[in-house]
DNA sequence: TTAGGTGCAAATCTTTTGCAGAAAG
DNA sequence: CTTTCTGCAAAAGATTTGCACCTAA
């Protein structure tokens, strides 16, 4: 937790940005909700708990900044708001989403199944890949009354 | 062309919707630009050529309707506008996107590479897939000064 | 005839910006 | 100090909605 903040602080400073209290609060919120895909408004409300004087515009600016520095991912699930999530430091690009069309939950899955496909795309389409976004739409285990799949790991919420 | 319109007309009528001139013009625009990924505003401007009295709100309403009926795909490439494209009738779900981070062009590729992956997701994550969205971000053949890859087919524009 | 559609303008919602006043390094 | 930030309120876009008037089937 603290070490990750420290690392992000370094990253900011390397680019001549300051780690203000507002930015730190924002980063903490993201860190504490790594499992979720928060909208700017979501983040704003959570940030207000830590630093009540923070303005919404600042949250937007911070999220944009963090996305530029590739500290967070900005995503769009088609519900009219951008959603943000921390890029966890190891498994970059091995990270896809399951969007439930019934309850709207977004689960994350981690796999590197696309590696072979990426190679083919690069070759056959002369396209130099830097990133990808893969979202499966469908019905999640909750909505079809199944137990939580082992692959998803323990239910979120308590860590940090 | 005409037969596809006829089929869409049937589909609408099956759901108690009418094929008004405005809707027909919208469908024709989508049909004539199958290769592209038009925004609502784009569609609106093209529809005005065919049916000048049409309002923007109607275009939005039509696109939403067509998306509900799964006649078009509504997509979000992160540039702040929704983009729409006809679901061509056969190769459903075998259809991905290459988004160039330099020129912004979106190319379509067709492949069923994900079939095996979908099976694993369904089994290992207990997730019943209905659809997926796969976008590769990177640099296209144009921006890296290469020739058009064969796999992409002839340059668009003239068909129908 | 009548349920479903339409255009227009106003309303909503998300995100961005201008600016004068802070504050981090 | 000086450059970078911040809050606020206003602006900008995209999309939706209310309403009185049409029109496809």
Can you summarize this structure?
Chain A has helices spanning 2-14, 21-32, 40-50, 56-68, 114-124; strands spanning 38-39, 72-76, 82-86, 96-100, 106-109, 128-139. Chain A is of the alpha+beta class.
Could you explain how this protein is built, in words?
Chain A has 160 residues and is α+β, with helices and mostly antiparallel strands. In chain A, 38% of the residues lie in helices and 21% in strands. Chain A has helices at 2-14, 21-32, 40-50, 56-68, 114-124, and strands spanning 38-39, 72-76, 82-86, 96-100, 106-109, 128-139. In chain A, strands 1-3-2 form a 3-stranded antiparallel beta sheet. Chain A has a 3-stranded mixed beta sheet with strand order 5-4-6. The longest helix of chain A has 13 residues, at 2-14. The radius of gyration of chain A is 17 Å and the shape is globular. Chain A starts with a helix and ends in a 21-residue tail after the last strand. The model of chain A has no long low-confidence stretch (mean pLDDT 90). β6 of chain A pairs antiparallel with β6 (128-139) of chain B. Chain B binds a DNA duplex (25 and 25 nucleotides) through α2 and α4.
Q: Strands, helices and their partners?
A:
The structure is a homodimer of 160-residue chains.
Chain A lengths: L1 H13 L6 H12 L5 E2 H11 L5 H13 L3 E5 L5 E5 L9 E5 L5 E4 L4 H11 L3 E12 L21
Parallel strand pairs in A: 4-6
Antiparallel strand pairs in A: 1-3, 2-3, 4-5
Chain B binds a DNA duplex (25 and 25 nucleotides) through α2 and α4.
Oligomer: homodimer
The overall average pLDDT of chain A, rounded, is: 90
Q: List the secondary-structure elements of chain A in sequence, H or E.
A: HHEHHEEEEHE
The fourth-level CATH homologous superfamily of the largest domain in chain A is Winged helix-like DNA-binding domain superfamily/Winged helix DNA-binding domain
How many helical elements of chain A? 5
Which fold name corresponds to the CATH topology of the largest domain in chain A?
Arc Repressor Mutant, subunit A
> For the report, how would you describe the main beta sheet of chain A?
3 strands, antiparallel
What percent strand of chain A?
A: 15-25%
Read across the widest sheet of chain A, the strand sequence of neighbours is 1-3-2
What count of structural domains of chain A? Answer: 2
> Which structural class do you get from the secondary structure elements of chain A?
alpha+beta
First and last CA, distance of chain A: 6 Å
Q: What is the share of helical residues of chain A?
A: 25-40%
CATH class of the largest domain in chain A: Mainly Alpha
């Amino acid at each position: 937790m603290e070490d990750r903040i420290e690392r992000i602080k370094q990253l900011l400073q390397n680019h001549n940005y300051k780690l203000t209290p507002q930015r730190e609060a924002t980063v903490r919120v993201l860190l504490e909700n790594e499992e979720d895909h928060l909208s700017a408004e979501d983040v704003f409300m959570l940030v207000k708990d830590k630093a009540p004087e923070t303005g919404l515009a600042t949250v937007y600016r911070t999220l944009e900044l963090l996305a530029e520095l590739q500290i967070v991912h900005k995503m769009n699930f088609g519900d009219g708001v951008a959603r943000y999530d921390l890029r966890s430091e190891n498994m970059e690009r091995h990270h896809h989403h399951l969007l439930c069309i019934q309850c709207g939950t977004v689960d994350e899955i981690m796999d590197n199944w696309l590696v072979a496909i990426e190679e083919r795309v690069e070759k056959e389409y002369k396209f130099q890949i830097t990133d990808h976004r893969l979202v499966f739409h469908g019905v999640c285990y909750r909505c079809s009354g199944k137990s939580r799949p082992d692959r998803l790991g323990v239910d979120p919420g308590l860590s940090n």
